[in-house]
Specification:
With about 270 residues, the protein is an alpha/beta fold. It has eleven helices and nine strands. The termini are far apart.
Length: about 270
């Protein structure tokens, strides 16, 4: 699939599925005017846009999704926002250290909303990003990590198992796996953060039809290893088959899920 098309599918179809997660975190932490957010792995920027709408100053950083970052810039840096808002908004293609300069105050909140615990090896890279980000953050500031909830509470898990079945069994990194209970705590510990509360949020995946569901799910990257091991047509066929139990009479697709977040503190 074309990378630009997939980024657009993510921003227009899939990213909104996590809006309840973003809202729950921002409400709990009372994000608003005076909050300075550093969004790690910010992608196409919907979570940052929601924080900015609450009055927060936001900086997004990502090094692995240039096509998504282009969409984030469209969302967060349009002329219609005015110079004051643009001055409080930055999108950085790179590493957390690239967001630091002498004029930037310390951040008061770090978010890592890209759910971990569903790809083998995905937590190792995040721990390194968090360790790099913490020197830029106020002492005691919250850092939010997100992940999939228990597989038995996530209907989409049955569809994601297609990725494991089709991926090369000799490859571990990049293959989907069920989330584990302590995934988030382990990452926080490796990054030197202190857990300080957690929560679960219902994030149902709802799509207009099977085609939208297919495009949205493929845009996550969770099926990339399967596509590499087989081919696009095979993955499309098996994902569509796995979606059938969740298609309703009107053609829409509905899959209830629970996501988990952890709040940790910078020591």
């Amino acid at each position: 699939m074309d990378r630009c098309a997939r980024a657009r599918d993510w921003s227009e179809i899939q990213e909104r599925m996590l809006v309840p997660l973003y809202e729950a975190v921002y409400e709990r932490l009372e994000v608003g005017t005076g909050t300075r957010v550093l969004g790690l792995g910010c992608g196409s920027g919907l979570a940052l846009l929601m924080a900015a709408s609450r009055g927060a100053a936001v900086t997004g950083v990502d090094s692995s999704a240039s096509e998504r970052l282009a969409l984030a810039r469209e969302r967060l840096l349009p002329e219609a926002w005015g110079t004051r808002t643009r001055a409080q908004t930055r999108i950085v293609d790179g590493h957390p250290r690239d967001t630091a300069d002498a004029e930037t105050p310390a951040y008061t909140l770090v978010t890592a909303f890209e759910p971990i615990g569903c790809l083998a090896g995905d937590s190792e890279g995040l721990a390194g990003l968090l360790a790099a980000a913490t020197p830029l953050v106020e002492r005691g500031a919250p850092v939010v990590l997100a992940g999939w909830g228990p597989p038995e509470r996530c209907t989409t898990s049955s569809v994601l198992r297609v990725a494991t079945k089709l991926a090369d069994p000799l490859r571990s990194a990049g293959s989907w796996r069920p989330a584990l209970r302590d995934d988030l705590e382990e990452v926080a510990q490796r990054a030197g953060l202190k857990p300080d509360g957690s929560g679960r949020v219902a994030c149902p995946f709802g799509y207009a039809d099977v085609d939208s569901a297919l495009r949205g799910l493929l845009s996550t990257g969770l099926f990339d290893a399967a596509i590499s091991a087989t081919d696009q047509a095979q993955v499309d066929k098996e994902v569509v088959e796995a979606l059938h139990p969740y298609q309703r009479r009107d053609g829409t697709v509905w899959m209830p899920n629970v996501f988990r977040y952890l709040i940790a503190r910078v020591p």
